[in-house]
Every structure is written in structure tokens, then in C-alpha cells.
Amino acid sequence: MDTIASLFSFITTPVSWVIVQFHTVYGAVFGPNTGWAWGLSIVSLVILIRICLIPLFVKQIKSTRAMQTLQPEMKKIQERYKNDRQRQSEEMMKLYKETGTNPLSSCLPILAQSPFFFALYHVLSGIASHKQIGVIDEQLLNSARQAHIFGAPLAAKFMDSASTVEALGATLTDVRVVTAVMIVMMSFSQFYTQRQLMTKNVDTTVKTPFMQQQKMLMYVFPVMFAVFGINFPVGVLVYWLTTNVWTMGQQMYVIRNNPTPGSKAQAAYLERLTNHVTQHGKIRRRGEKAIVKAIVTKGRDRNEFERKFINALNKAGLAAQPDGTVVRSVAQAAAQTEDGVPTTATVTGTEPARRQQPKRQSKSQRQAGAPRQAGDESLSLEKADEPQATKPAAAKQPQKPGSGTRSKAQSGQRKGGPQRPKSPSKK
Length: 427
Prior knowledge:
Layout: H1 2-7, H2 12-30, H3 35-52, H4 54-80, H5 85-99, H6 108-128, H7 138-146, E1 148-149, E2 152-153, H8 162-167, H9 172-200, H10 209-229, H11 234-257, H12 264-280, H13 286-298, H14 304-315, E3 318-320, E4 326-328, H15 330-335, H16 363-368, H17 377-385, H18 407-410
Antiparallel strand pairs: 1-2, 3-4
Helix pairs in contact: 2-3, 3-11, 4-5, 6-11, 9-10, 9-11, 12-14
């Protein structure tokens, strides 16, 4: 670890200068030789670095989502060229180039933090060995050696011997208890960060090898932190725990306000957005407009949660516009379906008249020629007003054979022509 840290010695001076500047501020409040002054200086260094890395974090999110979208296509390429590794790699690179996706973009924040991490490790190792590094002079070196965080010196490690710890003015028990607690917290924060990403912000409709890799990393990273953490000084553990907590909070914010389409986080987000829009009738922020705009643009390609969102707006008499806004318009809400296809609603906003089915008449009503109910009343009235001469004889309702009305056939009546007189013997 010391060899790796020495490779980043070029950035040791800037890192030590930033720590000293923060120490000057916090030392005036808590005292220059306290663990609060040096510990908060390291925490402030982490916050400053992470603020500078926010653009890279945004790029990481976009790259991760792009990789999730490309997983079905990547799987097809792997199955098509499973016996030709070279052709498989060429097709993968072609796919990345066409879509503008870089697989390494998801690692940019970690790679960008590595120089600062190892530079801080180099500074703290110099404090432990009583060596002046960067802008830390002899006075600051003595002050840092006296600083303790909950009884553990800033430069002490879990694997240090009792004599090394005593030289720093502490006991081996205090050092190991503090470092063990910090290692557990560091591993847990890393596990929780990865777990909330897998359980809330992953498209559950697509099962890809990428999801299996992420599940594996969810368990591998905490173990790696636990193994390497026993060789980290207390100050480095403070640095790494702070950056894990920052990552966890930053990811929670992104999952809540800009979730992955098709994920559980999107379902919860659209439900909150629906409640707000139906209550106030408008969109609040620019990010919400961008999400609504993307949903409207999809049309028939919307997922289940997005269709429910559009339907809820329609039921409330609202219509989502292509620019991401929402207007209160009965006409547009009635004319828009869940798939974005307009219906036959009129321009005035009234819904198309539904065809009312007539009630089925009983057999006695059909024989008596009673008018139809509830849909044909006007028709029966018109027919009643017409003169009987205008009604053709063929308009009579024919009797179905075997329907139970056989009185005419049984009495010897003919369907047409003169009728035969009844026989007296049949009375």
C-alpha cells in the first residue's frame, strides 16, 4: 500500500495544503490538537472532492442506464457469436460506438477519487512515521500525532502493534474497537448503497447478465472493504466512510427524483407526481417536466407505470403535453388514451355518445307487437304516427318454426291466399 501511495506523491502537496487550510478554521473552534479539528478537516476534504466530482457522477448514472438499455442487444450478440470471441468483441465495440456508450464511465468517480485517496494515505503514513510531507511542518506534525478520534490516534491502524500504538499515546484496545466499528460501518454503507440500487432503481422487466453482475458486486465490495480496512489508518477510514455516506445520500436523491424507467422507484415517483398534479393541476420543477415529456414522447412504448400515470391524469380531467406541462382540458383528456392514440371525441370536448342497447323483449311482448324499450321509444312513436296503409304487409314479424306459436298452422290456416273453414268435428 505504501508503494502505491508513493506513486501519487505528486498530489500529496495539494491534498496536505487543503487539509491544513481546513484545520486552521476548525482549530480556531475546537482547538488545534483535537481530533475534531483534524477529523472534520478530512471530512471537509471529502465533501470538497465529491462536489467537484458531481459532473462525473451524473455521467456515471447516464452510462449505467445506457448499459442497462443495451443489455438485450448485448445478449443477442453474445449468443450469435458465442464461438467467435474476436467477432463478438468487434460487434460489442460497434454497438458502443453507435449508441455513444462507454462501459468505463460507471467507474469514473472511483477512478477520479483514487489519487486523492492514496495521497491522503501517504500523508497519514508520514504522520505515523513522524515524517514531514507536503506543507505539513514539524508543528503541524506534532499536532496531528496528538489528535485522537474517540481515543484512537489519527494515524493508527487495526494491525499495528501495541508498541506502535503506545508511541502515539493510545491503547491497542481503543484502536481496534474504533477501527472495527468504522470498518463495519464502511462495509454496511457500501452494501446498502448497492442494495438500494438493485432493489429500487433497476428495470425489473428485463433480466440480463448485467443485473447478476451487480448482485455479485453487492456482496463482493463490502468484503473487500473489510479486508483492506484493517490496513487503513483511522484518518483514511474517516475519509472512506464519509465518501460512502455521501454516495449513499446522493444515490437516494437520484433514485427518488430521477428513477430508472420500469423500476420500483419509478412507480413510487409517478404515484407521488400523480397526487401532486391532480391536486394542484401543474408541474412543479424542470426535472418533472423532463420526465413527463419523455413519457408523452414514448407513446405506445410506455411501460406499465407510465400508462397508469397517463390514465390517472385523464380521469382527473388533465392532459400531459409534449413539452412536459399539464393542462386542465376535458377535451384533450378524453381524446387521449393510454397508448397515445386519439379517440372519436368531438372537438368541443364532449365524449362520444354511447350506443344504448335495447332491452330484450319477452315472448308475449313480441307476439303483441309491443314497442321496444329505452332505445327504440322514438322509433315506435314514429311508427305509431304513420298511417297504416303505408306499412307494407311484409313488415309483419315472421314466426319462427317450433317457437311455440303454432296456433295458425294447427288450425289449418295458410300463410297466403283464402283460408279454409274450420271443420266442426275439430271443435
